[in-house]
Q: What sequence folds into this?
């Protein structure tokens, strides 16, 4: 079953080609704060960089196609020396029959129900070819181009419609999309699985299987998410009444609505309504208080868990610290406590002080940041943080490449008991260094590991060009461990040691979970390059 155009099957809207241009720019290409006035498609032909649409950040590279709805704000920066793209602008014409005559009016709407952002399609190269052919026709290089450009546009949009992909790269099913449109329109009413299956033209069991495969959740869970998302919008409006919100999004009574809302978000709707006025505390070893600071909010108390999860601290010391921090937390009288999954064993204790939300474990620090931002009503600031950081990372990667190039990088942590070597497994620090900044990891440990621990005299050969070391402790026992390691052949044969490329760093393992921490890591990397240029071997530790 193929998706039909609204202007063919459902409405009398007709897209017409307004203009096309091929843009080519050199290095340091940057776009700041441009606003789209017409429906547009943007195809990247060459180069790569960052594209920000309405504060949502995308990685842009050759072959990517983006939908730009009217009102979209664009910012962009190139990473490559040459950037080239095709921009296609459309006008949408609405046709309506009035008293036997057709009336034509212009509409600013996008002709299809697509959202601003990247449009995933099958047969990407064929989509590129069709857009390039349409551009050649638009330039008048083919006969009868005035007749053919609009029909080619319709064929292009039909091709894209039929080959759209979900985020999981499954084919978009128009039948499922129709059922979702029905959910959105009639969410305030009772909606049954049989109704949705009938709209999709499937049996209930087939519909449920197809939906979960495409969307990653059941139709019931998806409908619940739509209802909760709509409820969140209404709860931020002044003078909203909880009972009215519950009814408007399809929940029979406010008590059931409150239960479903709390199951989804972790807090009651009554708390969500005043979320930007809450006194918030954090219980985290992942820097949640720094996340709040990046959102412009100062926590009333911070339980950092210092020593609680350190194998080198004795149980008595851990218990004493925990008691003291809980007392401080209780005295602060917070309205809400946000904790990380390390503090899950203390949930009941935390909940006895104030409503508590424990965020689930994730390797994506941005998930934590946007979740914290939502809990305190500062989502816009979180998106702004992401946007500013991605441009800063792009700037840093250009600054770092001439220095690091294809040289290998390894990270080490020295504790009181172990030497830890950072692996290349899934971790936000590895993603920052090797994916976003383009640095090259040394293969000192298994790629599947996040880090491995060694005794000082049994470390592997440090076969790396740059070695960055975090000193977790400056106690005598740690210093002794470090000196013993420097006496090994593995240390003294390391290219990083031989050429003076060993540098002290902060605790990047902890810093990589917050926006401010990412900025500090970038600054330290750039300082290393500056020191090495001005003072060769300045960063060398204990040479």
A:
């Amino acid at each position: 079953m193929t998706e039909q155009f609204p202007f063919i099957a459902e409405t009398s809207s007709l897209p017409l080609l307004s203009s096309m241009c091929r843009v080519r720019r050199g290095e340091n290409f940057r776009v700041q704060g441009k606003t789209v006035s017409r429906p547009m498609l943007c195809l990247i032909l060459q180069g790569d960089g960052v594209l920000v649409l309405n504060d949502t950040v995308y990685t842009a590279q050759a072959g990517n196609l983006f939908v730009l709805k009217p009102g979209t704000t664009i910012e962009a920066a190139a990473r490559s020396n040459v950037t080239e793209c095709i921009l296609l602008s459309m006008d949408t014409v609405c046709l309506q029959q009035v008293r036997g005559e057709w009336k034509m009016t212009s509409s600013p709407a996008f002709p299809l129900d697509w959202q601003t952002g990247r449009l995933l399609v099958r047969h990407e190269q064929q989509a590129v070819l069709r857009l390039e052919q349409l551009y050649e026709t638009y330039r008048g290089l083919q006969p009868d181009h005035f007749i053919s450009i609009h029909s080619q546009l319709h064929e292009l949009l039909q091709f894209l419609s039929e080959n759209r992909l979900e985020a999981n790269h499954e084919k978009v099913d128009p039948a499922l999309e129709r059922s979702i449109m029905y959910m959105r329109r009639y969410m305030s009413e009772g909606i049954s699985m049989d109704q949705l299956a009938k709209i999709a033209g499937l049996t209930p069991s087939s519909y449920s299987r197809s939906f979960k495969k495409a969307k990653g959740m059941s139709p019931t869970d998806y409908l619940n998410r739509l209802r909760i998302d709509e409820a969140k919008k209404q709860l931020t409006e002044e003078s909203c009444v909880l009972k009215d919100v519950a009814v408007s999004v399809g929940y029979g009574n406010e008590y059931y609505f409150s239960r479903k809302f709390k199951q989804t978000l972790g807090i009651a709707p009554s708390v969500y309504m005043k979320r930007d006025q809450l006194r918030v505390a954090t219980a985290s070893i992942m820097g949640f208080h720094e996340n709040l600071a990046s959102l412009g909010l100062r926590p009333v108390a911070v339980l950092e868990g210092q020593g609680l999860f350190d194998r080198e601290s004795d149980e008595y010391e851990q218990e004493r610290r925990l008691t003291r921090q809980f007392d401080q937390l209780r005295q602060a009288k917070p309205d809400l406590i946000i904790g990380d999954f390390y503090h899950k064993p203390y949930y009941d204790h935390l909940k006895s002080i104030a409503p508590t939300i424990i965020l689930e474990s994730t390797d994506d620090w941005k998930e934590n940041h946007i979740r914290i931002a939502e809990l305190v009503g500062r989502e816009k600031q979180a998106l702004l943080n992401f946007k500013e950081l991605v441009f800063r990372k792009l700037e840093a990667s250009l600054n770092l490449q001439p220095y690091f190039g294809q040289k290998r990088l390894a990270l080490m942590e020295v504790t009181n008991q172990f030497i830890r070597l950072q692996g290349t497994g899934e971790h936000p620090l590895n993603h920052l260094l090797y994916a976003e900044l383009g640095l090259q990891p040394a293969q000192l440990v298994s790629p599947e590991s996040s880090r491995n621990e060694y005794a000082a005299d049994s470390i592997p050969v440090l076969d790396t060009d740059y070695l960055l070391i975090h000193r977790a402790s400056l106690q005598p026992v740690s210093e002794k461990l470090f000196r013993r390691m420097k006496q090994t052949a593995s240390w003294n044969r390391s290219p990083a040691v031989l050429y003076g490329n060993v540098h002290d760093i902060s605790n990047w393992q902890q810093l990589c979970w917050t926006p401010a921490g990412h900025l500090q890591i970038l600054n330290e990397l750039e300082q290393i390059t500056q020191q090495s240029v001005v003072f060769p071997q300045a960063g060398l530790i204990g040479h």
Notes: The chain has 21 helices and 20 strands. The radius of gyration is 28 Å. Residues 1-11, 538-543 have pLDDT under 50 and may be disordered. The longest strand covers residues 83-98.
